[in-house]
Amino acid sequence: MSEWTHIMAGKGDDEGDTSVIVQTRPKTKRPPLYKVLMLNDDYTPMEFVVHVLERFFGMNHAQAFEIMLTVHKKGIAVVGVFSHEIAETKVAQVMDAARRHQHPLQCTMERE
Ligand code: TYC
What we know:
Layout: E1 2-9, E2 18-26, E3 34-39, H1 46-57, H2 61-74, E4 76-82, H3 84-100, E5 106-111
Antiparallel strand pairs: 1-2, 3-4, 3-5
Helix pairs in contact: 1-2
Protein name: ATP-dependent Clp protease adapter protein ClpS
Organism: Marimonas arenosa
InterPro entries: ClpS (IPR022935), ClpS_core (IPR003769), Ribosomal_bL12_C/ClpS-like (IPR014719)
């Protein structure tokens, strides 16, 4: 992406209008990132949450167990940060797995 500045020059009575376009700084905007959040509840088994974190967030067992415990104790935790499309997919995967297993586990996303 580029940003352009339009300069109008040469507007004397003996000349026609002369326009030049010069490129100033290159403008690259990074896409926004989204936090995926896991919420605690009283019913979802700890092992299921650990399994979900391993399966959909590429964590090893120790990492998954640690994050699960953080959610259990604090009520909520960020489990990853992704582009909008990837975050949406992760949330859908977690919510679908929870629904299939009839657990009330909740997962949401929030713009960083
Ligand atoms: N609090 C649940 C229990 O005691 C465990 C749990 C952890 C549930 C994390 C959800 O996101 C969660 N069985």
